[in-house]
């Protein structure tokens, strides 16, 4: 008889008896708290229509999730065979049962990874799968999932209530009309879905589509962008529109944290060259560095929290990006220099009580050396949780070990799931709650904090820090 597939109730907890007992109690106090999801990449279309459905199991678990298909790709499985849509017209697998079979054939690859933990939790606790996924039961599990996904209880809106989501923020291009957010607003829905303003595409002067994105920005803002001044006006107009639909934050990705204030004349000259297609060497780097300071100025003025993700060499595999487009898992961490890079921005706005900056990195070596000291000094700076490769049990432990002694817990921004996979939201938050409960239990067991402090801090880690950091009420 096949043993029923279950997860350990003590997963993520230390095996030492004293710490484990404390961790259980702390976790029990936060397990049912509402979920604040202030940063992620869930498609707002899932929630805009009252009866929207997920599609197939392959649509839900595999095709959109680079955490999943990058692992399979690393073992020689082509993205074409996983149904990932191509940009260049390459034919891709259309049979979702075959895609699911390939995934199940290789499910063992995820053992010991955070993705494996998330997937197992989703399959067991969200969809009621009772037998561990394998090559032999793949089609039976697919049938089970297909039946579940057809039920009204498994629509995205129904799962919103079941998951206990209080706030969910999407990430949206500056040029987005935000039609799904508008639809929810017009419906009067109680679902609290907020957009997040992401202007990267209209800042990256060297991007192939930059000129087209500027034209879209002109259209949606109603401002003819002919120079630097009209460009800034269009961006500020869009920020206002996002705020009107509930946005409380912006999001910015940069290769490095380098910031530099340009004179108005220099910025205008770079923009004019870009509009004419005559960029000079170094224009893109200088303009991005300047615009990060401009975005900080705008955030101080309009109150939108500024998020900055740094240290990812995105789309490292040029051939893959050409065939399938961006964000297909080929991100590789690089070294970063926050101390020197942020000097210009923080000297300009770091002490402004209106400004809030949340920092994320893929360079763990900077946690204790640079990020914790910056957050431990500047009133505007908070540290975002471990991101991308480090959104894991050990990544979270390393992060807390490295930053809390210098920055303290109250200079952290809590947790965000940063996911495209809607059904992974509760399990990702559960892992964070378990790890933070266990980490605090370790501090109690070592006599570094008392039980009263731990009981308060575990609530902050699970809920309060993120809600305040993102100004969500």
Can you walk me through this structure?
Helix 18 links the parallel strand 10 and strand 11 (381-383). The longest helix is centred in the last third of the chain and has 21 residues, at 425-445. Helices cover 49% and strands 8% of the residues. With 473 residues, it is α/β, with parallel strands linked by helices. The protein is globular, with a radius of gyration of 23 Å. The protein has two domains: 17-51 and 156-469, Metal-dependent hydrolases (TIM Barrel); 53-154, uronate isomerase, domain 2, chain A (Orthogonal Bundle), CATH 1.10.2020.10. The strands form four sheets. The chain has a four-stranded parallel beta sheet with strand order 6-7-10-11, covered by helices on one side. It has a three-stranded parallel beta sheet with strand order 1-2-4. Strands 3-5 form a two-stranded parallel ribbon. It is built from 21 helices and eleven strands.
Summarize the structure.
The protein is α/β, with parallel strands linked by helices. Helix content is 49%, strand content 8%.
Tag the structure with descriptive keywords:
49% helix; 473 residues; 3-stranded parallel β-sheet; 4-stranded parallel β-sheet; 21 helices; alpha/beta; 2 domains; uronate isomerase, domain 2, chain A; TIM Barrel; 11 strands
């Amino acid at each position: 008889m096949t043993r029923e597939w279950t997860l350990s109730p003590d997963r993520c907890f230390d095996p030492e008896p004293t710490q484990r007992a404390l961790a259980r109690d702390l976790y029990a106090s936060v397990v049912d708290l509402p979920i604040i999801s202030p940063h992620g990449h869930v498609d707002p279309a899932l929630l805009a229509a009252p009866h929207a459905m997920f599609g197939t199991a392959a649509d839900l678990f595999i095709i959109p999730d680079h955490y999943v298909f990058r692992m399979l790709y690393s073992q020689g499985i082509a993205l074409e065979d996983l149904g990932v849509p191509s940009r260049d017209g390459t034919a891709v697998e259309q049979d979702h049962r075959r895609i699911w079979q390939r995934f199940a054939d290789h499910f063992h690859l995820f053992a010991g990874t955070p993705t494996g933990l998330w997937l197992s939790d989703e399959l067991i606790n969200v969809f009621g799968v009772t037998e561990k996924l394998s090559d032999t039961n793949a089609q039976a599990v697919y049938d089970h999932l297909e039946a579940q996904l057809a039920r009204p209880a498994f629509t995205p809106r129904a799962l919103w209530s079941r998951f206990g989501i209080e706030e969910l923020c999407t990430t949206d291009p500056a040029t987005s009309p935000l039609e799904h957010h508008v639809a929810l607003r017009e419906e009067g829905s109680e679902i609290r879905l907020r957009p997040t303003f992401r202007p990267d595409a209209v800042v990256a002067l060297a991007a192939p589509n930059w000129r087209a994105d500027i034209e879209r920005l002109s259209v949606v803002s109603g401002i003819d962008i002919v120079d630097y001044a009209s460009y800034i006006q269009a961006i500020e107009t869009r920020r206002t529109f996002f705020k009107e639909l509930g946005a409380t934050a912006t999001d910015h990705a940069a290769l490095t944290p380098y910031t530099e204030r340009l004179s108005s004349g220099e910025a205008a000259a770079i923009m004019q060259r870009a509009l004419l297609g005559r960029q000079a060497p170094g224009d893109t780097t200088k303009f991005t560095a300047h615009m990060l300071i401009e975005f900080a100025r705008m955030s101080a003025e309009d109150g939108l929290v500024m998020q900055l993700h740094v240290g990812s060499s995105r789309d490292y595999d040029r051939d893959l990006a050409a065939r399938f487009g961006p964000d297909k898992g080929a991100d590789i961490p690089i070294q970063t220099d926050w101390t020197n890079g942020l000097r210009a921005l923080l000297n300009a706005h770091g002490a402004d009580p209106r400004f809030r900056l949340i920092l994320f990195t893929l360079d763990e070596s900077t946690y204790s050396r640079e990020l914790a000291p910056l957050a431990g000094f500047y009133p505007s700076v908070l540290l975002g949780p471990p991101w991308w490769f480090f959104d894991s049990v050990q990544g979270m432990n390393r992060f807390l070990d490295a930053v809390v002694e210098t920055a303290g817990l109250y200079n952290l921004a809590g947790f965000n799931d940063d996911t495209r996979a809607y059904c992974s939201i509760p399990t990702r938050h559960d892992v964070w709650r378990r790890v933070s409960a266990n980490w605090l239990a370790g501090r109690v067991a070592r006599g570094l904090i008392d039980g009263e402090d731990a009981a308060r801090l575990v609530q902050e880690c699970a809920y309060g820090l993120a809600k305040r950091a993102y100004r969500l009420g």
